[in-house]
Amino acid sequence: MLVVDDNNGIRRLMSEFFNQQGFYVREASDGSTALQLVMEEKPTLVLLDLRMPGLGGLEILAEIRDLAPETIVVIMSAYFDAKDLKKAVEEGKIEHFIIKPFNLEEVRILIYELLNKSNNPLKQTLNPSSFA
User: Fold this and answer.
1) Which regions of the chain are under pLDDT 50?
2) How far is the C-alpha of 80 from the C-alpha of 84, rounded, in Å?
């Protein structure tokens, strides 16, 4: 899993939380670092902040789709325009979106559900009872 957010506190919180759940988590504070990690490691899932300095979330998302089309991407943001979000969803740019602040337990359940729906080998290592 890759957590991409320019806010160090959010990155660390999510990284520590998902490490405790048994996930291997990498962190990136900017788009360039995120894309480098995607190229090198092809993460199963990326939690991606929408608004960051430099490359924005939608730009990074487009690059991830090219580099690792099988990677699940969940967009996170505290700031969004409903009209822009609707357009991005309709255009197929965004499939999964969570609004900050978020409940970590709800994010964990979402991640578990997304991984179980996907065809990746990680889903076989998840224990459904730990997500109750």
Assistant:
1) 121-132
2) 7
